[in-house]
Design goal:
With 147 residues, this protein is an alpha/beta fold. It is 38% helix and 22% strand.
Length: 147
């Protein structure tokens, strides 16, 4: 039998740190391993603003950038985890990547924060958390950040 998995998505913001403590608690209760994941979306460029496809970063470049950020994040916040988490950097729409990752790893739970945007900010930025709540097969614990 494989070890249980708690998925902790992060965007490296201080708001996402609000969920670390809960991910740690849930992992302890479930005797689970935390999987800290970061999903970076390919930028959208439109013809009028781009002279050449060479300006667009490749998926590999974005993944390398994400790995560097993940390494820095874990170095800064290692003390907040009981043991080093498994890490993954994914390229694609974050809500889809989070749900697919949780399915592929048969996650016991997803623990994530929400920025709590309302009004026009919510309409413009969307809500990764809402999409994960809507599509996930496993329970999702959402922690509202105070920041």
């Amino acid at each position: 039998m494989s070890e249980s998995v708690i998925v902790f998505p992060t965007d490296f913001s201080s708001q996402s740190l609000a969920a670390v403590e809960w991910a740690r608690k849930m992992a302890a209760l479930e005797n689970a391993q935390i999987h800290c994941i970061y999903s970076i979306e390919m930028p959208h460029y439109y013809g009028a603003f781009v002279n050449s496809a060479a300006m667009m970063p490749s998926a590999n470049e974005l993944e390398e950038y994400g790995k560097q950020r993940m390494s820095e994040f874990l170095e800064q916040h290692a003390a907040q985890f009981d043991r080093p988490p498994v890490t993954a950097v994914l390229v694609g729409k974050p809500s889809i990547q989070i749900v697919d990752y949780a399915r592929e790893h048969d996650a016991r739970m997803i623990v994530m924060s929400t920025h709590g945007y309302r009004g026009i900010r919510h309409a413009v930025l969307g809500s990764t958390t809402e999409a994960v709540l809507r599509d996930a097969d496993s329970p999702v614990l959402v922690i509202r950040s105070k920041g």
